[in-house]
């Protein structure tokens, strides 16, 4: 009786183990068939509008430009008219002589941030390794800081050189004209940045349009430089040297510096 009971218990245990093995094999087969069925998925391409730091920066620029346009319309209108008007001496009651630092810094900062968005978009399409290894907010912050630093250093260098070669009034007129033009550029660059971020504007078209805006910016500066500093023909050589050293070379240094910073970030991270 005991021997029969022992044999029956061992058979039940063998059947149970066999049943467990069959269940495990069935689960393995289902996992294999599940992993190989269907079409392989493709990763979604990176888009600027889905990036949180880009959205925060765009909203910041939007509120700043609303503030400037709401409270500084008269100021902007006066300086726009005064940019193409040339006077040897500024009058005591001349409206354009009032330089409001609030609107100038606000719109100038929007221009710098918009330019950094263009650079961010360019490198996001050409430097895949950079955007896979470095946090996006860090990259955008570095670009904004580099552009602001370039504008600040160039402005100080321009004031120093003008202080040596020209009088105080011409120097003040040039600085005012430069920042007025930088402020006016924000009204073109920021809408273009919105098109690039939220409407996925064609890369070649946006690159060409930004290049056209930069060239027009330099042409207007060249015109203002002639009207303000060099009213005689003998100053043309000085004009070319002055303009190339202060307006063209800093752009080259900025571009080479950004490429170098990208390589440093990739190597360090």
Describe the fold and architecture:
This protein is mainly alpha-helical and about 270 residues long. The protein has one domain. It contains nine helices and no strands. The protein has helices at about 1-35, 50-70, 75-85, 100-125, 130-135, 135-165, 170-200, 205-230, 235-269. Helix 2 runs antiparallel to helix 4 and helix 6 (about 135-165) runs antiparallel to helix 7 (about 170-200). The longest helix is centred in the N-terminal third of the chain and has 35 residues, at about 1-35. The chain is elongated, with a radius of gyration of 32 Å.
**How many β-strand runs?**
0
Distance between the termini: 75 Å
- The SSE string, one letter per element, is HHHHHHHHH
Calculate Rg over CA atoms: 32 Å
User: What characteristic shape results from the CA principal axes?
Assistant: elongated
State the major sheet.
none
- Helix proportion: over 70%
Subunit arrangement of the protein: single chain
Q: What structural class do you assign from the helix and strand content? A: mainly alpha
Portion of residues in beta strands equals: under 5%
Give me the number of helical elements: 9
- Count of discrete domains: 1
- Whole-number mean pLDDT: 77
């Amino acid at each position: 009786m005991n021997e029969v009971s022992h044999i029956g218990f061992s058979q039940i245990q063998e059947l149970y183990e066999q049943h467990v093995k069959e269940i495990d094999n069935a689960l393995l087969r289902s996992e294999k068939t599940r992993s190989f069925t269907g079409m392989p998925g493709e990763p979604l391409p990176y888009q600027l509008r889905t990036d949180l730091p880009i959205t925060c920066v765009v909203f910041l620029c939007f509120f700043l430009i609303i503030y400037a346009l709401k409270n500084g319309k008269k100021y902007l209108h006066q300086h726009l008219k005064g940019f193409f008007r040339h006077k040897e001496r500024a009058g005591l009651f001349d409206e354009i002589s009032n330089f409001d630092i609030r609107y100038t810094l606000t719109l100038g900062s929007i221009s710098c941030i918009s330019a950094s968005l263009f650079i961010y978009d360019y490198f996001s399409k050409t430097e895949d390794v950079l955007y896979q290894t470095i946090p996006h907010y860090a990259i955008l912050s570095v670009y904004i800081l580099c552009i602001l630093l370039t504008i600040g250093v160039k402005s100080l260098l321009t004031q120093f050189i003008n202080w040596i070669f020209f009088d105080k009034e011409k120097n003040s007129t040039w600085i005012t004209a430069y920042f007025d033009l930088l402020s006016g550029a924000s009204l073109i660059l920021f809408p273009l940045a919105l098109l690039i971020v939220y409407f996925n504007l064609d890369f070649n078209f946006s690159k060409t349009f930004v290049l056209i805006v930069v060239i027009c910016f330099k042409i207007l500066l060249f015109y203002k430089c002639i009207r303000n500093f060099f009213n005689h023909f003998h100053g043309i050589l000085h004009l070319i040297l002055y303009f190339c050293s202060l307006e063209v070379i800093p752009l080259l240094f900025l571009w080479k510096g950004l490429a170098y910073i990208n390589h440093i970030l990739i190597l360090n991270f």
